[in-house]
Amino acid sequence: MSPQNILTFPPDFYWGTATAAHQIEGGNTNSDWWRYEHQPDTLCQESSGDACDSWHRYEEDLDIVASLGLNSFRFSLEWARIEPAPGEFSVAALDHYRRVIEACHRRGILPVVTLHHFTLPTWVADAGSFEAPDIAKWMGRYADRVVGALGDGIGIACTINEPNIVAMMGYLYGVFPPNGRGWDRFCTVNETMRRAHGEMKDALRAGPGSFPIGLCLSMTEYQAVNGGEERLATWVEQMEDGYLRAARDDDFLGVQCYSRNLIGPTGPVEEQGVEVTDMGYAYWPQVVEYTVRRAAALAGVPLIVTENGISTQHDERRRDYIEEALVGLHRAISDGVDVRGYFQWSLLDNFEWVLGYSQKFGIVDVDRHSFTRTIKPSGHWYGDVARKGILAPRA
Ligand code: GCO
Q1: What is the mean pLDDT of residues 80-109?
Q2: Which of 64, 66, 334, 342 has the highest count of CB atoms within 10 angstroms of its CB?
């Protein structure tokens, strides 16, 4: 291997892996998703049930993160547990997350804490979810309690995970709760999300603690097909550009990307004749380089790739995907794009929303009966890259 083939990442780069509370903790019974999973007309293939039992097994999870040599871990707090009824905050739940944060610090792992990752307390759902008139205020109040209890331990804070996906799946396509359908509803929820983010950011800024604050945006590489140019422009404005402009006042932007998307005259269309992942997405690790360049140009703030990964039963292909993603990411960084870290999605095979446990995004396998964790070869390989901060691509 000649030295020019060896890619060195910045020394203080965040090497991590990402998770979300509802997808790994288990027993999140007070949330809108749990309720939806159990409705007779649900689109969910199965219930989240015990998930990976990470509510009890987080020390074991963090031992794995540390053993792999990763310096950062992204996880989310469950609002439904922290505020089970309006204005009623659970000290025990906050204490639990304090223990998780402390367990990170004990291992020298930076806790990257997401406050909202898809799920809502049922009382918020009953009041209208993201269409409840007071939702932004409630999220600000929630963030205020969180920072009061946990702020001095937070490494990086993500306010809302993929607000654009929540808006699209929950208010345009009717797939996520509250199963709404309508272009105007989708656009209004996108605006509401930005207001809620602002309220949360203000609350978090007040401290205690001092840490970068941003939101995590789902991005992709769009291409118009069959005369879809006009549709593409309105679509990209809703899905990305409105958020990228809003992020200009933030400390960073989390970029999350998995594949590319074609837009026809009526909206997204499926790509034919290409390799697809188990999610049905085109295999396209190049999306990381594309989206960080786009985000840098439009938002102009430091970036962190807070999610990127692949659902596949073929772990070798996962390694290929991460490797190709990192090669592109390195090229962007070398060109001056300010990217501070990369978080592979996901540490564990976990609950993939309506698709349940069928999707395998993890670098760690989880036995569905014993919860035994087994690190996959891709996990060992990724940990090695992270530990050294060096990638020696095979191709
Ligand atoms: C999202 C979420 C994750 C998903 C992941 C894989 O992007 O939908 O942040 O919860 O599990 O993206 O689809």
Answers
A1: 98
A2: 342
Q: Given ligand 1 and candidates 173, 305, 310, 353, which is best to mutate, with the most ligand atoms within 8 Å of its CB? A: 353
Q: What is the rounded CA–CA span in Å between residue 215 and residue 194?
A: 9
pLDDT at 394: 86
Give the list of residues 6+ apart from residue 19 with CB closer than 8 angstroms, or none.
Answer: 54, 61, 73, 74, 75, 76, 346, 347, 348, 350
Q: Has this prediction a pTM greater than 0.90? A: yes
Q: How confident is the model at residue 395 (pLDDT cuts 50, 70, 90)?
A: low
Q: What is the pLDDT of residues 179-227, one digit of tens each?
A: 999 999 999 999 999 999 999 999 999 999 999 999 999 999 999 999 9
The terminus-to-terminus CA distance of the chain in angstroms comes to 10
Dist. CA 79–CA 74, nearest whole Å: 16
Asked whether the beta carbons of 201 and 144 are under 8 A apart, the reply is: no
Distance 272 CA to ligand 1 centre (A): 23
Burial of residue 385 (CB within 10 Å: 0-12, 13-18, 19+) is buried
User: How far lies 379's CA from each of 134, 165, 290, 349, in Å?
Assistant: 42, 27, 24, 12
- Position of tokens 């949360």? 200
Give the per-residue pLDDT at 290. 98
Contact 328, 395 (CB under 8 A): no
- C-alpha span between 302 and 254 (Å, rounded): 9
Which pair of structure tokens corresponds to residue 129? 């979810």
Average pLDDT over residues 28-32: 98
| Distance in Å, CA 252 to ligand 1 centroid | 20
Rounded to whole angstroms, the Cα distance separating 178 from 124 reads 11
The count of other CB atoms within 10 Å of the CB of residue 77 is 26
For residue 1, pLDDT beyond 60: no
- What tens digit of pLDDT does each residue of 140-169 get? 999 999 999 999 999 999 999 999 999 999
Interval 285-312 mean pLDDT: 98
Residue 231's Cβ-count burial label (10 Å; 0-12, 13-18, 19+) is middle
Atom index in ligand 1 nearest the CA of residue 353 equals 11
Taken as a whole, the chain contains a residue count of 395
Which atom of ligand 1 is least distant from the CA of 165? 8
Report the candidate in 256, 220, 242 with the shortest Cα–Cα distance to residue 299: 242
